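Fold sample X.
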Amino acid sequence: MAMAAAGPPASRAAYDDVVIGAGHNGLTAAAYLARAGRSVLVLESDDHVGGAAVSATPFPGVAARLSRYSYLVSLMPPEIIADLELDVELVRRRHSSYTPLPSDPSRGLLVDTADEHATAVSFARAAGGDTEFVAWRRFYEQMGQIARRVFPTLIEPLRSREQMNELVAHADPAADAESAHLWELLTTRPLGEVIERYFDDDVVRGVVATDGLIGTFADLHDTSLRQNICFLYHLIGGGTGNWDVPVGGMGAVSGALYQAAVAAGAVIHTNCRVIGVDPDDGTVDYVMTETAGNRQRVGSVRGSMIHAACAPTVLNTMLDAPVDTETAPQGAQLKINLLLERLPGLRDASVDPRAAFAGTFHVNESYEQLQTAWAQARLDQVPALPPCEIYCHTLADPSVLGPELAGMHTLTLFGLHMPPEVFAAPGATADAVEATLASLNSVLAEPIQSVIATDTHGNACLEVKTPQDLAAAVGLPGGNIFHRSLQWPWAQTGAQVGRWGVETRHPRLLLCGAGARRGGGVSGIPGRNAAAAVLAW
């Protein structure tokens, strides 16, 4: 991971822009602003840059660089990669997903984006006919039309809801009217109701539903529609909804952004924790920890503009009055990183494990199972059969492994419906991990434990991250991977129309992190939009 300069910023120095946080969005903002000729200072509290978009070698003596927190890329516009001349390579996954049937794991549903016939056959085998495949193809064709229209707007000034509706429904007079109807349903009716209208099979419904629940703790019929917003963001990336593998791991993405910012002249300092912000005169106070002797000193700088790449609730702690009213964001996931000696066998002998694990491997995520797990977690209980999904980075990109690990594989597991309260009781984390691995084992031909590699100390190469861990390690309030609840990608009020979704009530203070409107995911969009607001694009 790229490291920043160790020296302290000059106290009371003045900059055009001061960026709080060197996560991927803060680095994006810094790169754009510095390339425009502005003087830019980035202050990062950690001893490294990248935030949640980092790679790490968590297993002692094992040369496996895992994407430790975030792990796939969908929402990063190609314009950002081109504008900043980023050395970033993204690999498209051929197999979208594989889902063993919970009732009979010897059968499963494999979605192969390169072979529609094979996918149709898999649907027929898993769902007992061709009806669900026809509905699937129809649904995602309509979502594709929506994605192609909505995604480009994320790096444009905000439209009103009415303007967005007009864009989606009437941009092309020859467009399929069904996509306009689906858009209306997605933006007005609970996701569960939408899914139930389109699909009948319990497993197929569950595969569709998971995109509304990644990092979002919600009943599929929640009338707030926050599961719908999550679903929309997961399906519009790149105008296709594809989730791609970053070659070299997620640290390669943040590393490229770091290099772009520094090459453009941005000054980046780590070990500088911001403790106060005066948004009226632009003063930013910080505490710097000097690595030599672990000494601390207090300093301050001034910026004509201040860009907060941290979560809004974290920014609130630096201000006299809050800029955001969501006081308790909540995450809902259990992340487990694994290194395997080899891929485990499947109960479904008709599917190559390399195909099953290359895409998203859905484990006990049928529609009914998702709802049951949510109901149990809502009572602060670890779900009896935790739903989770996994994928194998090394099937697309073996470069993250040292040569001595040839043939081994990383595995990323993301457990749904795991809010912070589930982990509050003593021993709850161990219970959650045990239950989650048991859930995975229920669809495998052999226990996952039998193929987990060991480190130089003989310990299993298994790393666990709860919402509490994410809050402590990367400043995600409540472990919320989006910094706060995701928001619809249009203006909430008339005053926001034509603006960038990064503004606060303070003219000199902008949000440039995932908590901005049109934030969430590894995208760089809030960072770019904050720069656009300053540069008056």
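Fold sample Y, listed below.
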Amino acid sequence: MTANGWLQFVLFFAVLIALMRPLGIYMARVFQGERTFLDPVLHPIESLLYKLCGVNAEEEMGWRQYTGAMLLFSFVSLLLTYLIERLQHILPWNPQHLAGVSPALAWNTAASFTTNTNWQSYVPEVTMSYFTQMVTLAYHNFLSGAVGIAVAITLVRGIARRESKTIGNFWVDCIRGVLYILLPLCLILAPILIGQGVVQNMHAYTQAQTLEHGQQTIAQGPVASQEAIKMLGTNGGGFFNANSAHPFENPTPLTNFLEVLAIFLIPAALTVTLGKMTGSPGHGWAVFACMSVLFCAALVTIYWAESQPHPLLHGVSQSSSALQSGGNMEGKEVRFGIADTALFATATTDASCGAVNAMHDSFTPLGGMVVLANIMLGEIVFGGVGSGLYGMLIYVVLAVFIAGLMVGRTPEYLGKKIEAFDVKMAMLYVLIFPLLILVLTAISVLSPQMGLSSLNNAGPHGLTEILYAFTSGAGNNGSAFAGLNANTNWYNISLGFTMLAGRFLMMIPMLALAGNLAQKKSVPPSPGTFPVNSSLFTVLLTGVIVIVGALTFFPALSLGPILEHLLLHQGSLF
């Protein structure tokens, strides 16, 4: 742990705070239909898109209609992606003449990119053609991100509106999310990445001769354009198998900094949007403070854990001790080091991004436990674009409910009474997530032929690899712990189901909650109203999140990374 590392963390957070407020206010104006500085350019394009798609921008939807439109759009997108993957061998822009993707893998990938997960059970540069990468996968990076933002905005509208039967128009929210937010930000970031050396071309792969007179195939393609939306949309799926550890995706310390910043930028700004649209800026900052506390706790723990020498090498000999004096560098890029690796790993698992610049499987057991626990909290610490905010607001409802129980009165949240239906929907949202993870992990570890046959590690480390896979899928994160070959029929099919359920089964009760809140009357605050814009609220919200996460997942963590940590200090490896 170095002063330089801490300085980088402080600089990162300072830049994030400086950028999030203007972006958050801008997004509030976009989704409230107010005029923005981009209107002269984008409004004619927006109007044309509505006309071509037959959308009446003035017609709003109830929560059931909004949910139906979202599910129908996602299903059609999934089907289209599946078909293009299967038929890519007869489609254009395939200079490497790659074959069509197998059925189980095509299903898994279609489900993955439709749900903003971008889990990849394949090596992208030898599996997906340029056409598939650009027309389907990059398309989903924009649209699945826009869906997440749109759904989050509906919940914010539900909180802000009074006695309303509608929560917005799905098609308008999606189009505005892509046109006014994601696309302009990508047009800023992508050229900077190209200037730093990220590849952007349509060439066939290069055949090079190595110094040993061997042959090496150097993959390339339209990388920078996908890298920008991969980060800004918290998608995470890499153009290359090594993801952001690959020098063609992440060549310099500046690109590393910008990519981490892009992961958090929109999720952080949405807390400002929350405060602006609900008329309570203090509440938005209280939610941001809770996210920041959890982020900093995870970052410090990972940085500390990875800065320690490996216990089986430390002190064995002077030479091995010297090799480990900088910490655990296994699986990490030397050009980034421990500090930038810890920052990237924390950000990508706090958000539902999944991009990586190091192999999480090579982290120390405690470092690996933290990145796993980050996802287990429900991807709410900033979280994915939109999904992080609405996931956090579910916990806000639970925190307000608990506060109401403590003072013995009906809980209130920004002028809305929180009643039985609201709590039921919130609890349904919270319970779906661990049910998916724990049940499918249990089936896998009890099935030698399906779940254990593709493991590279046994014991608690092997359990962690399986647990991480289903946690990443259900949390729509997409990062992998490695050590597990997930390109099997069992994992492709089960993880595909997990990703779809983790996205859409959790969206439905959330949208029902939004619709119910929008219909409620406004209740004036009283002396018994618990303020949701105070430091006390931040402490309560943080406590609820940690307690729910610990009670749910501590038994599984104790059998995985915690047990591995204890056995490692006794000399056991797996």
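Sample Y note: The first strand starts at residue 206 and ends at 209.
Also: The two ends are 27 Å apart (CA to CA).
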